[in-house]
Amino acid sequence: MSGPSAMFPPRPRLFCPLPGAIHPDHRQVEEGTRRWARAAGLDGLPGHEALLGHRMGELAARVLPGARREAVQLLGDLAMWLFHVDDDCEDGPLGVRPGGLADRLSRLLYAAEHPGATLLPRDPVADAVRDLRRRTEALFGPDAGAAWLDSLRAYFLSLLWEAGQRTAPEYPGIEGYALMRLHSGAVDTLLPLLEHAHGPALPPAARHDPRLAALEEMAAFLIGWANDLLSYRKESTRPGRRLDVVTLLRRNGAGLTDAVTMAVGQYDRVMGRFLELGERVAATAPGSRRYVAALHRFVRGAGEWELTSPRYGYRLGPHLLARAFADRPSPAAARPLGIPALQWWWDAETR
């Protein structure tokens, strides 16, 4: 498989006709996230200094443009912590040692589960997750804290899966990758904040609506697929085995241009269903309307951040950002998704 990123086609333009916005206090949130990381001692850890310039506070401000400032600040700090953990697990020595990584993640999970427990030696990353757990419950209550813990467990499982795949004799299939990608982007860990940041929690009938579960998974898919596509140019030049949809499609025999076209088509097809189902849920389940809108802002905000953050090298200004998304789906969006396990998203209304 040829690899030079110079062969990569022009930046993919994804179909995302959702409105973008940013919180009016985004600069203060950004500075607050940097202060929090420094106070937590995260800035002195290997590889973390660059993260301070990747605008995690701005990501939160794009995802929660209309929320109260405390919620946006919490999301920005959580994003900083999550990206540190993700980078450490992917690029650090434990990234190819699933056993050692399991021990590390179990200690972090215990710190999140029991913020008052003492873990020795002192660990700034564990101390930071204690703070995040306490603030989540202080802002949104114990139910939100419990949901956040559940999402953290799923995220950590995906990190272990990725570590195992980096040393496996074969690459994973697209379906297996897609199922774990729903969690490896850490989207689940932000959903409790989205649900509670704009008002009361979802009513029980809405929380157990399979259509809402489908929308949450589609949001995670869209954010993960967009990240794979937009980060491929940069990530493909780094050493080691990379796990992303473009690489896996190329491993299946597709050329680089065809792999990108196929992945963009998959994104666009899911986007079409995401918009269609979201509109129906908002019309038939008024209690879910606010949350559907929050999912929309999450998908759009994450995409805009990737195109403006130094993390992926695009740094688009406002004028270019406004034209960065496609006006209509790509022709490849008319093809089948090709991931049987996710077909239920199209059948969710009959469940």
Describe the overall structure:
With 351 residues, the protein is mainly alpha-helical. It contains 15 helices and no strands. The longest helix has 29 residues, at 256-284. The termini are far apart. Mean pLDDT is 91; it is low at 1-6.
Helix content percent band: 55-70%
Total number of helical segments? 15
Biggest sheet, in brief? none
Low-confidence segments, given as residue ranges, are 1-6
What's the average pLDDT?
91
Order of helices and strands: HHHHHHHHHHHHHHH
Shape call: globular
List the helices and strands and how they pair.
Layout: H1 26-40, H2 56-63, H3 69-91, H4 98-113, H5 124-140, H6 142-167, H7 174-184, H8 187-197, H9 204-207, H10 210-235, H11 245-251, H12 256-284, H13 289-308, H14 318-322, H15 344-347
Helix pairs in contact: 1-2, 1-3, 2-3, 2-13, 3-5, 4-5, 4-6, 5-6, 6-7, 6-8, 7-10, 10-12, 10-13, 11-12, 12-13
Task: State the gist of this model.
With 351 residues, the chain is mainly α. Helices cover 63% and strands 0% of the residues.
